[in-house]
């Protein structure tokens, strides 16, 4: 049949053209997710065109029923109808994750329907019966080419994006670090300097952009309520601890240095230029200052420059936000509807690739969870602050370390622990789950101050079992001669980093003690709980307690470790009910400060005048006394010296507890009620030191907390171990070695050895690891650990058989190759050493210590150009790596490239420790024996309460002297003092005698004479 052509387009022509346009529109929407107005208009145009097209198709079928007379026509009509049906459904519910299946059906039916439509057109022309009023016999070909082009366009764009991802979304370290903080981030003239945070255009961002967390609730209700209880929400001046520290900082050093904190804590007042213009005391109660970090704070980050931290991210204000925030309600409704209809631009803005890929989130989090200070902040020099990223990256948990003691079954990133999958029906859910936005970690203090019991419970649940404590052994009282303590540089050790944090697997020295003991190991009765141990009356024994990190990807504790109370408590009670030993007691029935002689896990720093850094005043730190932390997948062995009374019962029950309190008692009192002592005449507060006496009786009426009082921050028991031992007569058999080897104790022995090894007790560690190999010869790490101890001791040749045995058991154990390389390196066999290091690097190319070892070999072989490339690889992992900069300085000198060598020397001097500050710690340690004790790699903990007076109340004042509450001595205190003065018997005041510290009556005139009669107190009563 021949059809007469008429002028103009027929209904069929319009229908075919609309189909092609819709297909092209769909290909564009599928290929891109551009967060701009053009894309959003296209996404709104798509359903509108679909509705029009569906109407035209129905009209066409009504006019031309012959279209359905062939099988292909009938199938195409059915498929296109199904596509239209699912499309209509999506118009009302949106293309969110929950409706992904409907979207796939819509697209699948549409493509299939178009395919059969082309077949129907082609069939019509082949049989000489084309559908009426189409353009020509080649119309189906044109349409086919257009539809195929749309598919090819979509596929090409997808492939292009896969092969060439947007560099803005790639977190890549620079080839080397800047020479100063003035060159970091946007530079010294940037909006938030000295924070590295910046905006895409260098300007401010409207305030409302950071205040719209509530607007996220309708679509993300679960996530919103999780976030609302989280520390991200309470990161700013709604956190009283943080608020007090910034008030103090601005009072001391001014507004500008406080911007160093603001980049990661106070975006709503920092990116809007409020905090730069006004002292925080004037704006801290505004909505902006109480907003914390909102959803936007993380999700609007468009790029992270590197893993150098200090807020090194860039926020980009999205143009579409002006429509969402429009004052016109119609525009707001259309904008909000467009987000539900096609969430891709929304995801493109707020869910960048570095948030989608699990193992890349750590690099993203490093922007704020890794910090350093420098001259613009502290008027002193570069010092590493806290750093949760580097020790994660260099640990077995990340899969980046060739030398870890333990590895999880699969590498883990930040989100695996701190943002686990939980059930949710939010629009953003994936198969019914979302990542928790409670960001549960370790802060119980802030949620407790707001009465948020659920958040407190979740944090406590997270903490419990993350680190375990094990009452492991009874050791004979050691008699270590001075000649057995040797200071020596560990193999591969380099210069010391300037840091107030600990250094772990990211440094060759980090997991090794500089001072090592070569004394014979003490006799053991171990492991406890196996019926091997006993005690004797009148003797002194050493109780060995092992603390092991279990579910942590970084140091324990992490974060701002100068502000916590984390300690091991050991209490011994006989069957008569007498407490015969107590280390780590908490005063005031668990509400007060911790026994200062306890085994703490924290960092303790000093200002220029040797005062304790206890107000989060890290800018004043000039010298660290100690940073006692436990690496991920490692352990610490704590030694308690326990004297067994002659008249105790016949059984003693020991209870070891790992306790966690954030924050420590002193800083909580100071943050809520601290005020300067008005009677102090010699008070001096500068950027470098502060000798202020503080009183804790200030007003709490306006504190940033629900309860207007000093909170009794809960103490979390992370782990507990209990064992009961028999007590024998003094005339019974003397201490005997009693060791039981059981398969279930394999890791207990290994952990005990790790703790000794990290302290420098090499012979004791080697013995423990040898026992591990006896229990399970097939455990390759046991053989390697024996070799570790021998290599560190300098007995490298004795280590070789153990390393060979380890490789035979497990040829893929990278640590065995690394330590074999150390053996060859010590012997000067550099080619063999390089070969072994390279084998380790093949398994773990991200291990910076292995990389530096390879570079060092190349340098010693005078292969300077190759060594440069190797050390540059190290810097691609850590731009501030001290050892790499030092060796690059030497390499460039060998290459006669003086300018590059000079630059590396400047970087080396920037990051290395300031030895000139070492003398600051000396006077402090002399007057604070408990802290001095903690600086010793191998030390013992003593009991503060061998005989405990009832209800003794005490606390630390500013310079860590005992002070009594409420300001004068009570009957119990007088009784205790009288006991000391009479015969020196031990009791609560035993700690005071050890420290040669007297009594202070809370800054009031003391009721004790200036010179006590007892010689141990004479001259020390204040």
Structure description:
- The chain has 1022 residues and is α+β, with helices and mostly antiparallel strands.
- It contains 39 helices and 27 strands.
- The chain has a six-stranded mixed beta sheet, covered by helices on one side. Strands 12, 14, 15, 16, 20 and 23 form a six-stranded mixed beta sheet that branches. A three-stranded mixed beta sheet has the order 1-3-2.
- Strand 26 (954-956) and strand 27 (962-964) form a beta hairpin.
- Helix 26 (746-759) runs parallel beside helix 28 (780-793), helix 27 (762-775) runs antiparallel to helix 28 (780-793) and helix 29 runs antiparallel to helix 30.
- The longest helix has 27 residues, at 37-63.
- Mean pLDDT is 86; it is low at 1-7, 945-969 and 979-1022.
Question: Which characteristics define this entry?
Answer:
disordered N terminus; disordered C terminus; alpha+beta; 1022 residues; six-stranded mixed sheet
What's the number of helices? 39
**Parts with pLDDT < 50 across at least 5 consecutive residues:** 1-7, 945-969, 979-1022
Mean pLDDT score, rounded? 86
Beta-strand residue fraction: 5-15%
Determine the fraction of residues in helical runs and give it as a percent range: 40-55%
In short:
The protein is an alpha+beta fold and 1022 residues long. The protein contains 39 helices and 27 strands.
Question: Helix and strand layout, with pairings?
Answer:
Elements: H1 11-31, H2 37-63, H3 71-93, H4 100-126, H5 139-163, E1 198-199, H6 213-216, H7 221-229, H8 240-253, H9 255-265, H10 267-270, H11 274-277, H12 280-283, H13 295-299, E2 301-304, E3 313-315, H14 321-324, H15 329-341, H16 344-350, H17 353-356, H18 361-365, E4 370-373, H19 375-378, E5 383-387, H20 390-393, H21 414-418, E6 421-423, E7 433-435, H22 445-449, H23 453-463, E8 467-476, E9 485-487, E10 515-517, E11 524-526, E12 535-536, E13 540-549, E14 564-574, E15 579-583, H24 587-590, E16 599-600, E17 602-606, E18 623-628, E19 635-643, E20 651-662, H25 665-673, E21 675-676, E22 694-695, E23 716-728, E24 738-739, H26 746-759, H27 762-775, H28 780-793, H29 796-809, H30 814-826, H31 830-843, H32 848-860, H33 864-877, H34 882-894, H35 898-911, H36 921-927, H37 929-935, E25 940-941, E26 954-956, E27 962-964, H38 971-983, H39 990-995
Parallel strand pairs: 1-3, 11-24, 12-23, 19-25
Antiparallel strand pairs: 2-3, 4-5, 6-7, 8-11, 8-13, 9-10, 13-19, 14-15, 14-16, 14-20, 17-18, 20-23, 21-22, 26-27
């Amino acid at each position: 049949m021949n059809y007469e052509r008429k002028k103009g387009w027929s209904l069929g022509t319009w229908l075919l053209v609309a189909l092609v346009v819709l297909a092209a529109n769909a290909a564009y929407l599928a290929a891109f997710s551009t967060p701009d107005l053009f894309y959003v208009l296209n996404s709104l145009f798509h359903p509108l065109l679909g509705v029009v097209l569906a109407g035209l198709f129905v009209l066409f079928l009504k006019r031309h029923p012959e279209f359905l007379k062939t099988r292909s026509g009938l199938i195409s009509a059915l498929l296109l109808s199904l596509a239209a049906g699912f499309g209509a459904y999506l118009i009302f519910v949106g293309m969110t994750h929950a409706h992904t299946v409907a979207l796939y059906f819509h697209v699948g039916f549409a493509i299939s329907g178009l395919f059969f439509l082309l077949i129907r057109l082609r069939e019509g022309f082949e049989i000489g019966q084309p559908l009426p009023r189409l353009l020509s016999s080649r119309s189906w070909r044109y349409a086919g080419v257009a539809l195929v082009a749309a598919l090819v366009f979509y596929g090409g764009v997808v492939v292009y994006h896969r092969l060439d991802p947007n560099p803005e979304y790639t977190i890549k370290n620079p080839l080397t670090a800047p020479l100063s903080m003035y060159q970091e981030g946007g530079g010294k003239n940037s909006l938030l300097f000295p924070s590295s945070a910046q905006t895409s255009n260098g300007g401010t961002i409207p305030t409302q952009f950071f205040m719209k967390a509530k607007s996220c609730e309708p679509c993300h209700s679960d996530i919103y309520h999780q976030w609302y209880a989280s520390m991200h929400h309470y990161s700013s001046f709604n956190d009283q601890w943080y608020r007090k520290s910034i008030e103090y900082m601005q009072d001391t050093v001014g507004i500008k240095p406080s911007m160093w904190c603001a980049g990661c804590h106070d975006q709503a007042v920092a990116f809007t230029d409020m905090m730069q213009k006004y002292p925080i005391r004037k704006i801290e109660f505004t909505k902006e200052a109480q907003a914390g970090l909102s959803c936007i704070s993380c999700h609007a980050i468009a790029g992270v420059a590197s893993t150098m931290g200090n807020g090194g991210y860039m926020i980009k204000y999205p143009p579409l936000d002006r429509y969402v925030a429009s004052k016109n309600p119609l525009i707001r409704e259309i904008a909000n509807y467009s987000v539900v209809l096609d969430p891709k631009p929304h995801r493109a803005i707020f869910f960048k690739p570095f948030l989608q890929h699990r193992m890349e989130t750590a690099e993203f989090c490093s922007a704020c969870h890794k910090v350093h200070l420098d001259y613009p902040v502290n008027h002193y020099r570069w010092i590493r602050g806290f750093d949760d990223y580097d020790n994660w990256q260099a640990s077995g948990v990340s899969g980046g370390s060739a030398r870890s003691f333990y590895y999880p079954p699969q590498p883990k990133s930040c989100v695996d622990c701190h943002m686990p999958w939980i059930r949710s029906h939010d629009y953003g859910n994936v198969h019914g789950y979302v990542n928790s936005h409670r960001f549960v970690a370790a802060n119980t203090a802030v949620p407790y101050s707001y009465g948020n019991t659920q958040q407190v419970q979740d944090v406590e649940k997270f903490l419990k079992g993350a680190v375990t404590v094990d009452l492991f052994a009874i050791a004979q009282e050691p008699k270590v001669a001075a000649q057995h303590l040797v200071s020596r540089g560990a193999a591969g050790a380099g210069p010391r980093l300037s840091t107030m944090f600990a250094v772990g697997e990211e440094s060759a020295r980090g997991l090794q003690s500089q001072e090592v003991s070569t004394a014979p190991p003490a006799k053991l009765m171990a492991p406890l709980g196996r019926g091997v141990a006993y005690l004797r009356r009148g003797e002194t024994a050493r109780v060995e307690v092992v603390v092991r990190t279990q579910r942590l990807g970084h140091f324990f504790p992490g974060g701002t470790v100068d502000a916590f109370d984390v300690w091991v408590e050991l209490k011994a009670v006989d069957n008569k009910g007498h407490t015969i030993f107590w280390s780590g007691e908490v005063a005031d029935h668990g509400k007060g400060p911790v026994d200062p002689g306890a085994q703490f896990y924290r960092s303790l720093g000093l200002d220029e005048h040797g005062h304790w850094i206890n107000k989060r005043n890290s800018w004043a730190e000039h010298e660290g006394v100690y940073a006692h932390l436990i690496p991920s997948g490692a352990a610490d062995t704590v030694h308690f010296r326990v004297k067994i009374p002659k008249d105790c019962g016949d059984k003693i029950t020991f209870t070891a507890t790992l306790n966690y309190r954030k924050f420590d008692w002193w800083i909580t009192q100071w943050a809520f009620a601290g005020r300067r002592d008005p009677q102090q005449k010699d008070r001096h507060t500068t950027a470098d030191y502060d000798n202020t006496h503080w009183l804790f009786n200030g007003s709490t009426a306006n504190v940033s907390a629900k309860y207007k009082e000093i909170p009794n921050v809960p103490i979390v028991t992370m782990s507990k171990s209990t064992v009961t031992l028999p007590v024998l007569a003094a005339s019974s058999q003397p201490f005997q070695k009693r060791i039981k080897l059981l398969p279930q104790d394999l890791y207990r022995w290994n952990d005990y050895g790790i703790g000794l090894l990290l302290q420098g007790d090499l012979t004791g560690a080697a013995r423990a690891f040898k026992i591990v190999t006896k229990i399970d010869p097939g455990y390759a790490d046991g053989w390697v650990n024996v070799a570790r101890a021998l290599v560190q001791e300098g007995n490298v040749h004795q280590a070789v058989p153990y390393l060979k045995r380890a490789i035979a058991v497990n040829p893929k154990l990278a640590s065995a190759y690394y330590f074999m390389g150390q053996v060859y390196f010590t012997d000067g066999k550099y080619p063999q050493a390089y070969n072994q290091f390279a084998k380790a690097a093949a398994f773990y190319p991200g291990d910076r210590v292995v990389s530096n070892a390879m570079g060092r070999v190349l340098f010693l072989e005078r292969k300077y150009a190759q060594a440069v490339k190797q050390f540059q690889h190290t810097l691609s992992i850590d731009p501030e790596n001290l050892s790499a900069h030092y060796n690059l300085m030497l390499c460039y000198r060998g290459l006669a490239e003086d300018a590059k060598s000079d630059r590396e020397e400047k970087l080396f001097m920037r990051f290395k420790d300031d030895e000139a500050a070492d003398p600051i710690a000396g006077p402090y340690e002399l007057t604070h024996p408990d802290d001095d004790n903690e600086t010793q790699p191998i030390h013992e903990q003593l009991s503060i309460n061998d005989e405990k007076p009832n209800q003794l109340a005490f606390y630390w004042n500013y310079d860590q002297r005992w002070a009594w509450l409420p300001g004068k001595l009570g009957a119990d205190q007088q009784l205790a003092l009288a006991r000391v003065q009479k015969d020196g018997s031990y009791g609560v005041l035993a700690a005071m005698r050890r420290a040669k510290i007297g009594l202070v009556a809370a800054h009031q005139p003391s009721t004790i004479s200036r010179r006590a009669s007892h010689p141990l107190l004479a001259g020390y009563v204040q």
